[in-house]
Structure formats: structure tokens, C-alpha cells
UniProtKB/TrEMBL annotation:
Top-level taxon of origin: Bacteria
Gene3D superfamilies named in the record: Cobalt-precorrin-4 Transmethylase, Domain 1 (3.40.1010.10), Methyltransferase, Cobalt-precorrin-4 Transmethylase, Domain 2 (3.30.950.10)
Similarity comment: family membership: Belongs to the precorrin methyltransferase family.
Provenance organism: Prochlorococcus marinus (strain NATL2A)
EC nos: 2.1.1.133
Protein name in UniProt: Precorrin-4 C11-methyltransferase
Domain Tetrapyrrole methylase: 4-208
Pathway membership, UniProt: Cofactor biosynthesis; adenosylcobalamin biosynthesis
Top-level EC class as recorded in UniProt: transferase
Length: 250
């Protein structure tokens, strides 16, 4: 039988999906998709007779029962996730359960919101002498995090910090970050990046909570806190004429 394909839809724009993702959608008999997080335009890639099942009101257990049932019927199934399914996609428990049923699973990666946001703004998140590190994380929230990954520890590095699933906790997040980053550190707030109603703004760290609340942002929001969003003359050594390497002598 065909494996179940867990496919990353990317941030929202149809042309930011991978070719493989589009191929899987076009050949699917059943589409099981997170309708609350993915634009409906993407689902139009499937065949006219493809069965579409929305999951916004379903539990993980209910979704798994559907996947197992449809697979036993010999259907070619796409489980469509927003962004990249390997980031906050809850795919581990899906894969384990499906593997227990003897069902093979493939994962098709997608462009993540942090990549789309940086590209939309035209900024690099790893700039020489500012930071060479990107951290992808989230506020502690109700689900919590390992203590070794507390926001305080992550912020103390002062790298490019990308926070998912944190809009509901923005006041607490700002109060922690401002203890470690300079108050004027740029913060990119990205709501539904690459969607038709995309909203992105770069503001100082001190305005992070206020701006979020003014825009009533509680979900589908990413924060990028990074000194690279306000760059000066920070040139990479790789392309500097004074720098030699394997393929070029100085």
C-alpha cells in the first residue's frame, strides 16, 4: 500500500509549496487538512473527486482513526500541515501510532513562517559580528517546556530568536526578553505571513506587547527578535576579497 504522506503546506502562499508537496496533493484520494491554519486555495490542488476532511474540530485520536480507516481502504492519503510539519506539528505521535498499525509514513517538508517572514522583510538572520545562531522556540504556555530551555536561558544568548505559539503570552514574553536584549532590539511581528491578509511590522522590543494587543493578535503569529533586523555595515568574510579559501586565493 501507499505510505501516508504528511505534507508541509508552507506558510500560506501557493507558490511557496515544494514541488513534491504539490505532487502529493494532486495525486491524493483523501485530504486530511488543518483547515484553521491553511488557506483553502491550497486544497484546490487536489483532484475533483478527492475526499476532503477538515480537522479543526477533531482530536488527534479521531484524526488517527480516519487515517487508519482510509489507508485500509487502499486510499492515497495526504495529511496536510501548515508550515513545516517537523516544527510544532505534533507528527511524532501520529507517526508512532501509524507505525504501530504497520502503516508507512513519509514526511514532506515545507517552508516555515520564520523563513517566509525574514524573506518578506529582506533580512538575513545570521549576520557576522551580530549573531550566527537562530533559535526556534515558544513561550512556556500551558504545555510548558523543559526547564533547561527556559525563555530566560534562550534570551541570554541574544541571538535571532523566533517564537511560535506565543501571542497569548506576549506580555510575559516581553518582560523576560527585555532583561536580556537591549530595549531597542527590533522585533518582527508576523501575522499570517504570505496569506492575502498578511500583516508584518518591525517594532522595538518595548512595543512588542502593546502592538500585539492593538492588533488583537492571539494566534497564527510569529515573533522574530533579532539584532540583524537593524543591520549596519556587517560584511561576510566569505566574499571579502581579503579572505582566501579552498576555491579562491586572497
Amino acid at each position: 500500500m501507499n505510505p501516508i504522506s504528511i505534507v508541509g503546506a508552507g506558510p500560506g502562499a501557493l507558490d511557496l509549496m515544494t514541488i513534491r508537496a504539490q505532487q502529493r496533493l494532486k495525486s491524493a484520494d483523501v485530504l486530511v487538512w488543518t483547515d484553521s491554519l491553511i488557506p483553502i486555495q491550497i486544497t484546490k490542488l487536489v483532484k475533483d473527486d478527492c475526499e476532503k476532511i477538515k480537522t479543526s474540530s477533531l482530536t488527534l485520536e479521531e484524526i488517527l482513526l480516519i487515517l487508519i480507516k482510509k489507508h485500509k481502504e487502499g486510499k492515497k492519503i495526504v495529511r496536510l500541515h501548515d508550515g513545516d510539519p517537523c516544527l510544532y506539528g505534533a507528527i511524532s505521535e501520529q507517526i508512532c501510532r501509524l507505525n504501530d498499525e504497520g502503516i508507512e509514513v513519509e514526511v514532506v517538508p515545507g517552508v516555515s513562517a520564520y523563513q517566509a517572514t525574514a524573506a518578506t522583510l529582506g533580512f538575513e538572520l545570521t549576520v557576522p559580528d551580530l549573531t550566527q545562531t537562530i533559535i526556534l522556540s515558544r513561550a512556556d504556555g500551558r504545555t510548558g517546556k523543559p526547564k533547561r530551555e527556559s525563555l530566560q536561558k534562550l534570551a541570554s544568548i541574544q541571538s535571532s530568536l523566533c517564537l511560535y505559539l506565543s501571542a497569548r503570552h506576549v506580555e510575559e514574553v516581553q518582560s523576560i526578553l527585555i532583561k536580556y536584549y537591549p530595549a531597542n532590539t527590533p522585533v518582527a511581528i508576523a501575522y499570517r505571513v504570505t496569506w492575502p491578509d498578511e500583516w508584518i511590522k518591525v517594532i522595538p522590543l518595548t512595543e512588542m506587547a502593546k502592538t500585539s494587543q492593538e492588533q488583537n493578535l492571539i494566534r497564527t503569529t510569529l515573533y522574530i527578535i533579532s539584532p540583524t533586523l537593524k543591520i549596519g555595515n556587517n560584511r561576510s568574510k566569505l566574499y571579502n576579497p581579503t579572505h582566501s579559501h579552498l576555491f579562491r586565493s586572497s
